[in-house]
Amino acid sequence: MPDTKSEKLVHVMVVDDEPLLRFHLQKLLQELWEDIDQTIAVGSGVEALNVANELNIHTIFMDIKMPGISGIETAKALRESGYSGNLVFVTAYDEHAVAAFEHEALDYLLKPVDEKRLLECIQRLKKRSQTTVKYELDAKQLTKLLPQHTHQSLQWINASLGNGIHVIKVSDVSCFIAEDKYTTVVTEQGSFLIKKSIKQLLEELDPNEFWRIHRSVIIQVSHIKQVLKDENGYLNVLLKGIDRVLPVSRNNAHLFKQM
After folding, report:
1. What is the pLDDT of residues 156-213, one digit of tens each?
2. Cα dihedral 230, 122, 216, 219 in deg (nearest 10)
3. What domain of life does the UniProt record list for this protein's source (predicted)?
């Protein structure tokens, strides 16, 4: 049975017997889908079934033509075992489209996967998730009869530096950068470490003051010094008093359209 501790995490799985294509799609997903907590890549239908039995997989991107059991056969086995997550088939053969949708596939991508087309697919997946959440929230309208508590944004952070604990005012933070198991809190006075994830911080910070510009980066808007565009058209942010250039993902470039 899937681990119940992972139910609220967004696990995405890529299933393809070709290592380079598997790696390429995994990398694209990590760049374009910021809400992903973990991207798992496997090379066969059997491995996919084993992983789906251990983790709550949000979405599976599955190749169709694979040695052993095919993607269609794997999808059938997944549905029969009770898997209710999203299925997206990725293949070089468009004649399998009908069979794919018979197994409740949400989308069907042709190789080589186009970034724009993949982003459209991700938006569909997000919209489906939001619709589900909205339904659950609507079912809880009776809670309006209970006393409501006003949400307070995070004001102070306890962060570590060496063996010491520093109490940092959130308004002094220039940016948060996810690095390995920790998140670095960057201020003009120095850098500190906390164990909160970027996802947790987004829930606690004021969205009018802090923007997520990349999967692993949150910046304080008032600390922006300049936004530059490189020769490839990508945006980069320079912050006041911080000697670091921070990249803006394509998914978040719209934040700076009016600037």
Report:
1. 999 999 888 999 999 999 999 998 789 999 999 999 999 889 988 988 898 889 999 9
2. 70
3. Bacteria
